[in-house]
């Protein structure tokens, strides 16, 4: 299992390119199941989750090529990938594949809409909470699907196709909004989705579906209207820059000090985060080519945050922000409202000398003047990168174990950080 070794204490300076967003690329790839034509996606990040989804889609009959050829080049860089689901050869998504990655459950929407049937394993639980799928099931039932859960599988049928309807999400869900939008794109008549998620990845998917011939309006607001069409065509579409990767590296610079241009980053995707970083004392400059982050001299101000659906502070940056607050000049409160168990990084940050106590859904962080390197364990994707942020500022050496979590969502992390002056290396074993 690979490890990452970091010797802390260096400022970050230079230019750091931002990759395509994992959480936009995954639903866009799944949308390729909706058409027998080719969907070409530009700026697809090179990540373990993308590779896993390619395998899952392949099982349903989706063929793919990278820049016109099978993948064998440009390892590690965002790419253009062509996906073609000429025919769906299997409408079952088996446990062995779905249990590896939660987003793979989302194939249920397109499979049901295009084929009238889908059998998809319940996704596995994971370290950040229970993550049920009740909203997907309720929503698809509202579109006329018959659904049973049997032996760990969701069996869904809509023999005569899905039928548009009004559905009010009882709780905001990114995944369920993606799935219902894809399913309703091929339903008969109009669907109105209320209390929808407003994340930029939802807008990116709606834009792609519209380029494929769908009739979707309102994505990015809480009410999305979808006029069903009988078929969708191919299209070419670009994955948006990764706002979580952007926020992560912005926090790393705020932590170590220095001056870094996050090239290709888009400020409107993370305004709440940038505002918070400014309150901590970091200087943020929004430019046409990216976001410049600077912190020189002065220490880090403590700032309280509460995670919220977009446009609020994202849960996917909560761990990283806690990493930053471990060295703030005072006490901060970090409240997690989206997932019930997303504090696994607390005990690992403590190994580096952080002073954090938990009180229900709130972490109380008392900033310390110094962290010290230690062996730590990555427990989930964003938790693992919070350890990297802390390690970059810690005295001495830190080894982060189980970096396969990191590889799910951060493209060429060591290369990007070392180009900005970090002492960081991967130890393969
Ligand atoms: C691949 C991807 O894009 N993952 C993101 C997506 O996950 P994901 O789409 O899984 O997250 P959701 O927005 O669905 O989850 C929000 C909340 O709703 C709950 N819920 C969800 C569905 C359901 O049927 N029932 C239910 O109760 C969840 O347990 C959670 O408490 O949005 C999360 C919230 O921004 C992010 O942290 C993840 O990085
Ligand atoms: C939690 C995340 O991903 P997933 O929903 O795939 O687990 C994430 O991207 O932070």
TrEMBL record:
For the modification 2-(S-cysteinyl)pyruvic acid O-phosphothioketal, which residues carry it? 126
InterPro entries, sorted? Enolpyruvate_Tfrase_dom, Enolpyruvate_Tfrase_sf, MurA_subfamily, RNA3'P_cycl/enolpyr_Trfase_a/b, UDP_GlcNAc_COvinyl_MurA
Residues at the active site: 126
Describe the function of this protein.
Cell wall formation. Adds enolpyruvyl to UDP-N-acetylglucosamine.
NCBIfam families per record: murA, PRK09369.1
Q: Where in the cell is it found?
A: Cytoplasm
Protein name as catalogued: UDP-N-acetylglucosamine 1-carboxyvinyltransferase
Q: Which PANTHER family match?
A: UDP-N-ACETYLGLUCOSAMINE 1-CARBOXYVINYLTRANSFERASE (PTHR43783:SF1)
Domain Enolpyruvate transferase, chain residue ranges per copy: 7-417
- Which top-rank group of organisms is this from? Bacteria
What this protein catalyses is: phosphoenolpyruvate + UDP-N-acetyl-alpha-D-glucosamine = UDP-N-acetyl-3-O-(1-carboxyvinyl)-alpha-D-glucosamine + phosphate
Matching entries from Gene3D superfamilies are given as: Enolpyruvate transferase domain
Q: What is its EC number?
A: 2.5.1.7
Please report which protein family the annotation says this sequence is part of. Belongs to the EPSP synthase family. MurA subfamily.
Give, as in the UniProt entry, the pathway in which the protein acts: Cell wall biogenesis; peptidoglycan biosynthesis
Q: Where does phosphoenolpyruvate bind?
A: 22-23
Listed binding positions for UDP-N-acetyl-alpha-D-glucosamine are 102, 131-135, 316, 338
Lineage of the organism: Bacteria, Pseudomonadati, Pseudomonadota, Alphaproteobacteria, Hyphomicrobiales
Which keywords does UniProt give here? Cell cycle, Cell division, Cell shape, Cell wall biogenesis/degradation, Cytoplasm, Peptidoglycan synthesis, Pyruvate, Transferase
The molecular function terms in GO held by this entry are: UDP-N-acetylglucosamine 1-carboxyvinyltransferase activity
What is the name of the gene encoding this protein?
murA
């Amino acid at each position: 299992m690979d490890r990452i070794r970091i010797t802390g204490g260096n400022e970050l300076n230079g230019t750091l390119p931002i990759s395509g967003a994992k959480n936009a690329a995954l639903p866009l790839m799944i949308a390729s199941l909706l058409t027998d034509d080719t969907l070409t996606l530009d700026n697809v990040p090179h990540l373990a989750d993308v590779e896993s989804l390619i395998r899952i889609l392949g099982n349903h009959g989706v063929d793919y090529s990278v820049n016109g050829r099978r993948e064998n080049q440009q390892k590690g860089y965002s790419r253009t990938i062509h996906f073609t689901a000429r025919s769906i050869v299997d409408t079952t998504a088996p446990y062995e594949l779905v249990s590896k990655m939660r987003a793979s459950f989302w194939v249920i929407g397109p499979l049901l809409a295009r084929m009238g049937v889908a059998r998809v394993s319940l996704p596995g639980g994971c370290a950040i909470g229970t993550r049920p799928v009740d909203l997907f099931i309720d929503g698809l039932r509202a579109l006329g699907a018959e659904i049973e859960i049997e032996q760990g599988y969701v069996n869904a049928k809509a023999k005569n196709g899905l039928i548009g309807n009004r559905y009010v999400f009882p709780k905001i869900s990114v995944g369920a909004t993606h799935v219902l939008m894809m399913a309703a794109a091929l339903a008969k008549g109009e669907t109105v989705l209320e209390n929808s998620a407003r994340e930029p990845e939802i807008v990116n998917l709606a834009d792609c579906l519209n380029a494929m011939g769908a009739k979707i309006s309102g994505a990015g607001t809480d009410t999305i209207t979808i006029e069903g069409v009988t078929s969708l065509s191919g299209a070419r579409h670009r994955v948006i820059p990764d706002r979580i990767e952007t926020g992560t590296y912005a926090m790393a610079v705020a932590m170590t000090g220095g001056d870094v241009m996050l090239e290709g980053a888009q400020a409107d995707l993370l305004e709440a985060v940038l505002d918070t970083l400014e309150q901590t004392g970091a200087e943020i400059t929004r430019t046409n080519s990216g976001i410049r982050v600077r912190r020189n001299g002065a220490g880090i101000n403590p700032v309280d945050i509460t995670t919220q659906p977009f446009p609020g502070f994202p849960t996917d940056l909560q761990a990283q922000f806690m990493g930053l607050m471990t060295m703030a000049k005072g006490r901060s409160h970090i409240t997690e409202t989206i997932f019930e168990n997303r504090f696994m990084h607390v005990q690992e940050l403590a190994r580096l000398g952080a002073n954090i106590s938990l009180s229900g859904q709130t972490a109380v962080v008392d900033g310390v003047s110094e962290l010290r390197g230690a062996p730590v364990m990555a427990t989930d994707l964003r938790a693992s990168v919070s350890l990297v942020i802390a390690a970059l500022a810690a005295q001495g050496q830190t080894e982060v174990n189980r970096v396969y979590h990191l590889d799910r969502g951060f493209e060429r992390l060591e290369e990007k950080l070392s180009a900005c002056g970090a002492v960081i290396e991967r130890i393969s074993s």
